[in-house]
Every structure is written in structure tokens, then in C-alpha cells.
Amino acid sequence: MEDLREKKLFGHPRGLTVLFFTEMWERFSYYGMRGLLVLYLVDDIANGGFGWSQVEALSLYGTYTMMVYIMGIPGGILADKFVGQKKAVMIGGGLLVLGHGVMALPGEMVFYAAITLIVLGVGALKANISTMVGQLYKQGDPRRDKGFTIFYMGINLGSALSSLIVGYVGQVYGWHWGFGLAGIGMLFGQIQFMLGGKYLEGIGELKKSESIEEALPDQSVHLARLKQNPLSIIVIALVAMLGAYVFVDVSYLFGVMIIIASVFLGVGINIYKYELNKIERDRVVVLLISFLMVIAFFGAFEQAGGLMNLYTDQKTDKSVFGWFEMTAAQFQFFNPGFILLFGIPVAGFWAWMSNKGKEDSALFKMATGNMIMGLGFVLMVGATIQASGGNLASMWWIVGAYLLHTVGELCLSPVSLSFVTKLAPVKYGSIMMGLYFAMTGLGNKVAGLLGESASHFGEYEVFAGIGIFSVVFGLLLVVFLRKLKKLTHGAEDIALES
């Protein structure tokens, strides 16, 4: 009997096609809703919006996009320890279909129910489908990075389509028509994943050795380890105290999240100390440092759906050569559109660098991505200067900024996904991928906070500050690049030796 897992399409497993289209439709629904969210919240009640202030809308945007990715951690635990990645993706897809469907209905309570379902759905699906891509390839398979690049193109194809279609429908025909269209896209993705399951046999399955009884240590083991490791107790106590302060004086939600995080952090320290060998510990350290890059990058990048989205709507001339006028939501097309246009040339550039023996490590690419991102905000500074005195900024400032942001994203995002699968301990693969997406979520919240600060400091100061920080941070990482590469213990060289 033919093993369908071994069937190839353009030299890659057919299962990659299934995961490609599942993620494409999931991102179609997510980015379609994301592009409309802030505009919907600030729109007048008479027009079907909520009539919120810009600060309120950006605050919710930051919290929502953060929670979407932070839920990747429990989503990873669900997969690694209970049901496997494939079932977790199925569960997540079902929640997303339901959430986007509810989003098409009017009402504030319905809105909160919808975004809760979407947060839970993305948390179960996002990290686990990326882990499944890694499982399609054997250790050291040189096609793995290319496979992730193809997968990443699916993400941006979905985003591009939703920006043009959902963005237009939502702003022209009504917000809830746009939200409903996003839900239909997710339904297509769920059906496609179910029909393509035959190409994913053995991928994303919970191994017998990973059963609940064997995979989860006895609670007494964790308690004993905590007693043996004073550092864990100190960390839990200090972080929990911070959470208590935040709970009382700042935000109930963030206070509870910090207190819960303190326990996970303490357990994580114990896992690091008792369950990992020297090489795994060093690689985890490098991963955690790379996560700082991810936070910095997405804190800047996610201005696209927040402050830059509002700036485009309110202070930008959106006329294209006088022929027609774009909606603000449609400007979200430029990022995924540029990715589809420049994805192959950027990948070719890094291949050329590798052939010439130049620096092309994942860490260097991620640092480069941060610096190019910063240069994009130089153009946003130009837009604010042109728009001073009540003028409208040229749309080409925004387009140019999206172009540089896209090149930066192409340097960082695809390789960071592959980087996690290479360096993460096998036993904690989905959890580390979930942690990666949680850091993406934290970057989203940072983006929301930075966007909110524009009401106090002004767009010029915020855009300039983001640009300077991104460039300086990237340069700092390049300075320490050699030391960080040593800690990977040649993880990136395995493919070259195979």
C-alpha cells in the first residue's frame, strides 16, 4: 500500500501543501479581522462602530494581539502532553470558525465572546501547525528551511488576499460583512485540513512515550525540585509580588497573568537545571536571547495594524495617482504583497551570501531584520514632517515604510521559526514554539503601548524612537554574534553536514 506521507510536490512532502493552505486560510481570517479591528472600534456608533477613543482602541488591539500569541504556550502544552499537534490544530480551527462566525454579529458582549474564541483558537493552532511543518522533515534535511519559507509564503498569501478583499468589504459594505467573510475563509481552511489528513499520517501524533502518565512528572517531583532550588523560589516570589502590585494598581488582567507566569517561570528554571544537558541548556539560552529580538521586532512591526493604520486613515492622502482612493485597511496589503514579490529575491540573496562564505546565520539575519525595520520608521518620520500643519502625507511614505518593514520581516520571521525547531529540546518542541509565539504576542502588546503613547508624545517622536531603538538593538546583537553562535553548538551546521 502506498505511503501517502512519502508523496512529493515540487520536491517537498505533500503534507506541506495541506499545512500551507490551512495556515493560509487561518491567516486570511486573522489578518482580515486585524486590519478592520482598530478602525471598527474608533468608528462612530451611527456607522456601526463602537465610538471608542484612539487610546482605548489601541489598548484593546495590543491586549488582543498579545493574548492571541501568548495562548500558544498552553496550546503547546496541550499538544505536547495531551492530544498531539494534529488534534490541537483541529481544536483550534474549530474554535476559530466559531469565533469569526460570532464576530459577524453585532453587539459589544458578542464582540468580547468572539475575540475570546479567536484567542483560544489561534493559541491551539498557531504554534502546533508550525511544529508539524518541522516534523515533515528528518533531522538535518536541507529542505527544512525552504519548507518553512514556502509555509511562510502561505501566511502572506492569506494576509494579502484578506487585506484586499476583507478590508474593502468591511469598510465599504459594513464591518460585520467583513468579519463574516473572514470567518468563511477559516471554514475553508478547516475543511481543507480535515480532507488532507491522509498526507499527515504520523505527523503531529502524540507518541506513546509522551502519554500523560509518563510525560508529566509527579507533582511531588516538582515540589521536591523547588525545595532543592532556592533560585526558583526566589524568582516565583519576586515575580508574584510584581504581579500583585500590577493587579492592585495597574490592571487585573496583567496582574493575574504575571502571577501565573511566575509559577511557569519557576518550573521552567527547574526543567532547565534538571532535565536538560549542557548543549540543550546553551541552546535554550540562545533561543531566549533570540526571543528578545522577536519582541523588539514585533513591537515595531505591529504598528501596521495600530498606529500606522490610524495614521493612514486620518492623515494620509490615499489617492493612487488620482485614479482611485484606497481604504486604510487595504494598505495592509502592501506588507504581504511585498513578501510575495520579494520573498524569493531575499532568500536568493542569503543563498548568495552563504555560497560566498559570508555571514548568513539565523542570528545575523534576525539582527539585520531589526535594523532594516528601524530604517522603515525613518520614512514614517518623513510622513509626519510632511503632514505637519494640517497637510496630508503622501501615501508613498507609507508604502516605502511597508517595503522596508517587509524586507526586515523576510530576514527575521521565516528563519526564526526554523531556528526554534533546530535549537529547542525535542521533548519541549511545541512548548518552545508556543513560547516563541508568546514573545510575538508580547511584542504586539508593546506595539499597542507605543501606539497609545503617540497621544502624549506625538507620532513624530514615537516613530523616531522606534527607528533609533531598532537600529541600535540590531547593531548590538551583531557585536555579540560570535559568542552567541558558539552556544548553538553547530545546530545550524547539521543540515550542511547531512
Descriptive notes:
- The relative contact order is 0.14.
- This protein folds into two domains: 14-205 and 277-497, Up-down Bundle (Growth Hormone, Chain: A); 219-276, no CATH class.
- The protein has 498 residues and is mainly α.
- Helix 1 packs antiparallel against helix 2, helix 1 packs parallel to helix 6 and helix 4 packs antiparallel against helix 7 (175-195).
- Helices cover 77% and strands 2% of the residues.
- InterPro entries: Dipep/tripep_permease, MFS_dom, MFS_trans_sf, MFS_Transporters, POT_fam, PTR2_symporter_CS.
- Pfam families: PTR2.
- Residues 15-485 form the Major facilitator superfamily (MFS) profile domain.
Give the topology, please:
Layout: E1 8-9, E2 12-13, H1 14-42, H2 54-70, H3 72-83, H4 85-103, H5 108-135, H6 144-173, H7 175-195, H8 212-215, H9 219-228, H10 230-249, H11 252-274, H12 278-301, H13 307-315, E3 316-317, E4 319-320, E5 324-325, H14 334-355, H15 362-386, E6 393-394, H16 395-423, H17 429-457, H18 459-479, H19 481-487, H20 494-497
Parallel strand pairs: 3-6
Antiparallel strand pairs: 1-2, 4-5
